[in-house]
Write a structure and sequence with these properties.
The chain is mainly alpha-helical. Among the domains are: about 10-140; about 145-205 and about 360-455 and about 490-520, Orthogonal Bundle (Neurolysin, domain 3). The chain is built from 21 helices and 3 strands. The chain has helices spanning about 5-45, 50-70, 70-85, 90-110, 110-135, 140-160, 165-170, 180-200, 215-230, 265-285, 310-325, 330-340, 345, 350-360, 375-390, 400-410, 440-455, 460-465, 470-480, 490-500, 505-520; strands spanning about 240, 250, 255-260. It has a 3-stranded mixed β-sheet, sandwiched between helices. Helix 8 packs antiparallel against helix 15, helix 9 runs parallel beside helix 10 (about 265-285) and helix 17 packs across helix 18. It binds zinc ion (ZN).
């Protein structure tokens, strides 16, 4: 798909489509502006501005929503659709129209009162969660979680579903995924990965104390940003800043920013954090320029200015660069000398092999965000299971901590000592987000599927990786994934790129091979 065709087709559609596009560009502009305020609030903003900033982002998002669902937009949509029948079903313009129609219908089904109630709950629930976590008192947060679940159920009813109310919630983040499809996927992952986890739990862990030496932040930044540039991150359209909870955020493909959290006494946090966020950024920077400010670079159901097609697809790109490239033997064979040069005192007595083993150390633990590559998905699977049971009414908020602890014991063999390190650890529920944990695991599975396909399909990619040339891999991902923005669904992208939809086999093979050989 070339840029030229896209522009020509748009010209053929004439003034109706131009008017529709101009209207949708306003929606994207407002959401981009809101995102920029969000970026500022998490990097630069003085704490005193927090209340006003909340009003500002809420106002911008509300204006974007009002334009989207307005009768005028619907009128322009009707007119443009009437012209679009001559185009192929998957032509970018037709997909933009179709997605806009679906998004308008969905937003119109959600009562304004419910929207308002959810927004208000978010602001109070977060404060309650922070206090509950600090004091390890689940009871302080439970009433808010109760309300969050209740409102999530109402949201699910408004959105609509055919089998499980949780399906409706997931559709906002991972369209097409259902409780039924996840049950199959999770069963495959459990069967494939649990034996590897169990076998490793018996082996001695490699030493990794040296990762906790003193690593000055500026040097960490210097090293990581060099790698990000090598991966293809364009700093004329991006930048790296420090924050508390790292993220990537974009305001069109021409301004895609990443953030990191420097931990002076733990090297991997920021090092792999930057590689992770760079993967997200490459996706956003690589969207077809013709899609800028169109529905194909706007998450209309979620009201968010983002070019990637689903949260899982997005996560596949961060995981691919962070893990398949950044945690590989090939990568460190090339870059370890430079890391050692950056930190000569800290790493002088650490061999490349010891470093490689340390950054791939497996240790079943309590905290999801600190989990290693092999045990991470178990944290995700249990949360997804618990969330869908909460939404279905099979599990109560009061029963949740006990259910949580039981699943941690069952899968990872760890005993949860308190709720702070158990059920209260994640920020998601306090911000009203239910239905989004599965994206992390879907991202992992999809990353492995794409990486296996890329390296099998084109021998040049792996040869180039061995010399530190990331261009061929970046190009392959750009062709297959990045450029399409939100034009194709996640599974459409996967079928085009690999010949099949989401498939757990490459991921299970990757983890089994890697960790069986590491712990042989
Ligand atoms: Zn991510």
């Amino acid at each position: 798909m070339t840029l030229m065709t896209s522009v020509l087709v748009s010209a053929n559609l004439g003034k109706n489509h131009a008017a529709f596009s101009a209207r949708m560009a306003q929606v994207n502009d407002l959401l981009s502006a809101s995102s920029l305020l969000t970026w500022d609030s998490r990097t630069m903003m003085p704490p005193g501005a927090v209340v006003c900033r909340g009003h500002q982002t809420a106002t911008l998002t509300m204006l974007a929503r009002e334009i989207l669902v307005s009768d005028e937009t619907l009128r322009l949509l009707d007119a443009s659709e009437a012209d679009a029948h001559m185009l192929a079903e998957d032509a970018p313009e037709r997909r933009a129209l179709q997605q806009t129609r679906e998004a308008i219908a969905m937003h119109r089904r959600i009562p304004a009162a419910l929207q308002k109630e959810r927004a208000e709950l978010r602001s109070t629930a977060q404060a309650a969660w922070i206090q509950a976590r600090a004091e390890d008192r689940y009871a302080l947060f439970a009433p808010y979680l109760e309300k969050t679940v209740e409102l999530a159920r109402q949201l699910a009813e408004a959105i609509g579903y055919s089998e499980h109310p949780y399906d409706a919630l997931m559709s906002l983040f991972e369209p097409g995924e259902t409780v039924a499809t996840l049950q199959l996927l999770f069963a495959e992952l459990r069967a494939g990965l649990l034996p590897v986890v169990r076998a490793i739990a018996e082996k001695p862990a490699p030493p990794s104390d040296f990762l906790r030496r003193d690593y000055p932040e500026l040097l960490q930044e210097k090293f990581a940003i060099e790698i990000a540039k090598k991966f293809g991150y364009d700093l004329t359209r991006g930048r790296l800043d420090a924050t508390v909870h790292p993220f990537e955020i974009s305001f069109t493909r021409d301004d895609v920013r990443i953030t990191t959290r420097y931990s002076r006494n733990y090297l991997p946090a920021s090092l792999f954090g930057v590689l992770h966020e760079t993967g997200h950024a490459l996706y956003e920077q690589g969207v077809d320029p013709a899609y800028t400010r169109t529905p194909l670079a706007t998450d209309l159901p979620g009201l968010y200015a983002v070019g990637g097609v689903s949260f899982g697809a997005h996560e596949s790109q961060s995981r691919l660069w962070e893990n398949h490239v950044g945690r590989s033997r090939t990568f460190w064979a090339l870059h370890y000398p430079a890391l050692r040069q950056t930190f000569p005192d800290q790493l002088s007595d650490v061999s490349e092999e010891a470093f490689y083993r340390a950054i791939n150390r497996v240790q079943p633990g309590l905290i999801r965000v600190e989990a290693d590559e092999l045990t991470y998905d178990f944290h995700v699977m249990m949360r997804t299971e618990l969330e869908s049971d909460l939404i279905a009414g099979k599990l109560s908020v009061a029963e949740l901590p006990e259910a949580w602890n039981a699943l941690m014991k069952r899968d990872l063999g760890v005993v949860v000592p308190d709720n702070r390190r158990g059920v209260l650890q994640d920020i998601h529920w306090s911000s009203g987000q239910i239905g989004t944990f599965c994206n992390y695991t879907i991202g992992n599975v999809m990353a492995a599927q794409l990486y296996a396909q890329a390296t099998q399909e084109d021998a040049v990619i792996e040869q180039a990786l061995a010399t530190g040339d990331y261009q061929p891999l970046w190009q392959w991902l750009g062709d297959r994934i990045y450029q399409h923005g939100r034009r194709f669904s996640r599974d459409e992208l996967l079928i085009k790129a690999t010949g099949r939809k989401l498939d757990s086999a490459p991921y299970i093979a990757y983890l089994s091979n890697k960790y069986t050989s590491l712990y042989a």
